[in-house]
């Protein structure tokens, strides 16, 4: 990072699944400078924390947050989102190394009760 927020700005991050069984789901560089980052309708799963580094003025709306080492079950956290365990089919066992292998890949598909369906933000 150059440390100049005028070079990294206006980023929308939505409808993603971020699963990291080794570290935080989001990790910012200590020199990360950015502005107008908005995260919505994502599922963030981290090993022991969710965000590492300065989150600055980022906006988080209707995301689902889950910490593998210390879960907080069923808590609603306002516009920021939820703490609901995503019921993935087979998380943490990714072996995909090429684009061709993505066809039919479903280990992070949510199975069982679809508690997250319909609770996202509309923009």
Task: Tell me what the structure shows.
With 123 residues, the chain is mainly β. It has strands at 9-14, 17-20, 26-27, 35-40, 43-46, 51-52, 59-61, 63-67, 75-76, 81-83. The strands form three sheets. Strands 2-5-8-10-9 form a five-stranded mixed sheet, with no helix packed on it. The protein has a three-stranded parallel sheet with strand order 1-4-7, with no helix packed on it. Strands 3-6 form a two-stranded parallel ribbon. The two termini are 29 Å apart.
Assembly type of the shown chains?
single chain
What average pLDDT do the residues reach?
Answer: 81
The percent of residues in helical segments reads: under 10%
Low-confidence parts: none
Topology, element by element:
Blueprint: E1 9-14, E2 17-20, E3 26-27, E4 35-40, E5 43-46, E6 51-52, E7 59-61, E8 63-67, E9 75-76, E10 81-83
Parallel strand pairs: 1-4, 2-5, 3-6, 4-7, 5-8, 8-10
Antiparallel strand pairs: 9-10
Short characterization:
The protein has 123 residues and is mainly β.
Distinctive features:
mainly beta, single chain, five-stranded mixed sheet, three-stranded parallel sheet, 30% strand, 123 residues
